[in-house]
């Protein structure tokens, strides 16, 4: 599920370092995209 590519590693580093809320918004967007993908997958699309 979790693919460790350089972009994702840099994003994780950004989430760990940045305290301005960007990391939280990125993580929330990633979870939201996962929820949408899971919903559409369960619906058969």
Averaged pLDDT: 64
Main sheet overview = none
Cα gyration radius (Å) = 13 Å
How many distinct beta strands? 0
How far apart are the termini?
20 Å
Overall structural class, as computed from helix and strand content, comes to mainly alpha
How would the global form be characterised? elongated
Keywords: Plasmid
Key features?
single chain; 45 residues; mainly alpha; 2 helices; elongated; plasmid
Describe the structure.
By secondary structure, the protein is mostly helical. It is 76% helix and 0% strand. The protein contains two helices and no strands. It has helices spanning 6-17, 22-43. α1 (6-17) packs across α2.
Brief sketch in words of this structure:
This protein is an all-alpha fold and 45 residues long.
SSE map:
Elements: H1 6-17, H2 22-43
Helix pairs in contact: 1-2
Keywords: Plasmid
């Amino acid at each position: 599920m979790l693919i460790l590519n350089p972009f994702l590693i840099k994003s994780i580093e950004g989430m760990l370092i940045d305290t301005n809320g960007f990391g939280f918004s990125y993580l929330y967007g990633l979870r939201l995209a996962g929820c949408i993908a899971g919903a559409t997958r369960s619906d058969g699309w």
